[in-house]
Amino acid sequence: MEADPGRRVRQPVIDFDHYRQRSLSESDGAWQRVRGQCPVAWTEANGGHWVVAGYQEVALAFKDWETFSSARTNPEFSSLTVGNLRIAPLYPEELDPPEWQPLRRILNELLSPAAVRRLQPRIEHWVTHYIDQVIESGHSEMAADIACPIPAAVALELLGFPQSDWERISNAFHGTASLDRKTPAFAQAVDDLDWVSLRVREELAKRRRAYEDDALSFIASHEVDGQPIAPGDAEALVLLVVGGGVDTTTALASAALVHLSRHPELRAALANEPGILDSGTEEFLRMYPPARTHARTAARDTELGGCLIAKGDRVLLSEVSACHDERAFADADRFIVDRFPNRHAAFGLGIHRCPGSHLARAQFKEIMRQVLRRMPDYVVDVEQIAEYPNWSSIGGWARIPATFTPGSRLL
Amino acid sequence: MSVRIRVDRDLCTGHALCHLHGPDVYILDDLGYNATDQQEMPPDLWEQARKGALACPEGAILVVETGPDEVGSAESSAG
Predict the structure, then answer these.
(1) How far is residue A408's CA from residue A111's CA, in Å, rounded to a whole number?
(2) Which ranges constitute the DSSP H helices of A139-183?
(3) Going by DSSP bridges, is the β-strand pair A386-387/A379-380 parallel, antiparallel, or unpaired?
(4) Helices (H), A112-162
(5) What are the start-end ranges of the H helices in A308-398?
(6) Which residues of A touch B14 (CB under 8 A)?
(7) Cα separation values, A301 from A297, A315, A359, Å
(8) What is the largest CA-CA distance in chain B?
(9) DSSP-assigned letters across all residues of A227-293
(10) pTM to 2 decimals?
(11) A391: helix, coil or strand?
């Protein structure tokens, strides 16, 4: 059945704008209400788009890349979110096959499980280093001291950015996710994203002149279909690694640190039985997916969850709603540390499955292991914690002040 | 009874959760995708085979159980 644009009926219609979700509880509650009404619905918010909230429907759409396109068919259509968003393209996330394939292969080579195992010593080094900076004092703002700098150091060292750039690059991405949009600091972070693009271009140009032993050189010297990779493609790929690498694992770690501060029995279980960290990590991902939504564009007329979606319609896919769907997960609102199976959608599903998922898991687990070992009695000042001001796309905690029994540096 | 696994390579997107739950059954290639050949396996690996298939969020793994005592199959499915 084809949807006739002249007689197009988009229904059911709901009053829903995910940009209104100012806190974790607002966001989780809003998605629960949408799921309770319908797995797929239309909203007039943000220029009008479909909202996909059921696990089954989210999974179908993610897996059907031919119908639900990630490509920037319109320069302002980003797969990061709906609504107009003037940001530089991110490849291969915002490409469909066949263009997607060679660039995805580069990321898979850099971030495969085997590559991440080789990075494990560097992950351990940076976790140790950043905990060393606070361990003797007995207090830490765990978002700024631990959750934020560690993923940035691992990703930016792997790429080969000079250490003097790390903080500003990290703050640009962390700031756009974690700061209030009305503040000058937010405007500064947005401006800094342009500076990050500039630095990416400069460093890639340098690697094209002289190969260095880093991922920037690996990317700059890569061939695509027998030709050197196009500079614009290399830049879009590096921006994806940086943007995907520096604030998503941060958001997950911040959520877990806050969650553990509220659930001492779980903290004790993870400290005493290190074997449950693997399944526990998947459950943290399911409860607190760092990237909560993504967007697609219908490449043809289709049907999803009983709704007729027309070619060109924008579609918001909710990983967080899929992860919390009561029809897919028993006791979906409960944290079950050994939940199995746990086929969550926190890394997305289908061909765009987060290529950094293996690195994210390895870093998250090392942060948890060292925090539980070196600052096992940390107490979070609940009066002073602060969530990200918006939970539409990336959700986490911006400030986590904590105290703990001081310990010794290891490096 | 025998237990075999069938992997749909077109559906595998490299989550590597089969390997996490069945490290002695599921082999990953250099890029992290499931490279397990269809094979019959000894009974002590059946549990790993089943858990790895159940863990797959893409529904890419089929465990086929056949034999005189039991005929059936268990497929990993997403949702």
Answers:
(1) 33
(2) 142, 149-159, 163-178
(3) unpaired
(4) 113-135, 142, 149-159
(5) 319-323, 357-374
(6) 108, 112, 353
(7) 11, 12, 37
(8) 39
(9) EEPPHHHHHHHHHHHHHHHHSHHHHHHHHHHHHHHH-HHHHHHHHH-GGGHHHHHHHHHHHS-SB-E
(10) 0.95
(11) coil
Q: Say if the Cβ atoms of A114 and B16 lie within 8 Å.
A: no
3-class SS of residue A21: coil
Per-residue pLDDT, A3: 47
Contact A347 B14 (CB under 8 A): no
pLDDT digits (tens, 9 = 90+) for B2-26: 999 999 999 999 999 999 999 999 9
- Which residues pair with residue A168 across a beta bridge? none
pLDDT tens digits for A97-147?
999 999 999 999 999 999 999 999 999 999 999 999 999 999 999 999 999
Q: Please check whether residue A358 touches B, CB under 8 A.
A: yes
Going by DSSP bridges, is the β-strand pair A49-52/A314-318 parallel, antiparallel, or unpaired? parallel
Check the CA dihedral A139-A144-A147-A153 and report its sign: negative
Is the CB of A114 less than 8 angstroms away from the CB of B28?
A: yes
pLDDT tens digits for range A134-190: 999 999 999 999 999 999 999 999 999 999 999 999 999 999 999 988 999 999 999
| ipTM of the complex in this document | 0.92
The alpha carbon torsion through A349, A354, A355, A361 (nearest 10 deg) reads -110
